[in-house]
Amino acid sequence: MRLGLLAILVFAVPQLDCGAEPATGDLGIACHLMNCSDKLVVGFEEPLEEGSYRIEVAEGDHLLGCDLVVPPTGPAQRCPAVREETQPPGRSAQAIWPLFSDDDALSGFSIWGSPAQVQITILRDGSELLSFELTPTYEDQFINGGPECGVDCRTAEVVVPLR
Predict the structure, then answer these.
(1) pLDDT exceeding 70 applies to what percent of the chain?
(2) Cβ neighbours of residue 76 under 8 Å, at least 6 residues apart?
(3) For the chain, the helix, strand and coil percentages under 3-state DSSP, each to the nearest 5
(4) Could you tell me which of 20, 22, 37 has the C-alpha nearest to residue 148?
């Protein structure tokens, strides 16, 4: 009885084409369907030590803020943006993700999105530690097979001195 039921299920289920070819770009190159996110990574020359911090990222009238404690008191911390009417269209800053070193010092942060220009301010225990304007240069990432398959995301990385 079980063997008969198994045979019915095998033949009744539509056959899947496991050998299907991936989509192709304009030049016939195989394109994959992986995903990546635009991001701007800001690293510090030296990790920030213990304290209460606030990271502020201003893009025009749009302000993101991230309050955190070093060392972290829980699992990975992310500070999402609140969507506002003043948020510019396109690849603007959407969230801040603090980056911690192996010894739990703050080594930098990622900004999800690819803003054209931002004003970044770092406060420690309520006092301004660092403030600077940044116009990043982004690199196009082609994780799905190359330029023929289109730009998948854009990334930039900068390292800033603390003084």
Answers:
(1) 67
(2) 97
(3) 10, 45, 50
(4) 22
Residue 39: both structure tokens together? 């991001």
Distance, in Å, from the CA atom of 68 to the CA atom of 13, rounded to the nearest integer, reads 52
Task: Report the alpha-carbon distance of residue 46 to residue 159 in Å, rounded.
Answer: 10
**What confidence score (pLDDT) does residue 141 get?**
81
Nearest alpha-carbon partner for 64 in 43, 49, 84: 84
Domain boundaries, the chain: 39-160
Q: Kindly report the length of the chain.
A: 163
Per-residue model confidence as pLDDT tens digits over 80-135: 554 444 444 455 777 888 888 888 888 999 888 888 899 999 999 999 999 999 99
Q: Do residues 115 and 91 touch, judged by C-beta distance below 8 A?
A: yes
Q: Alpha-carbon dihedral of residues 151, 37, 57, 157, nearest 10 degrees?
A: -70
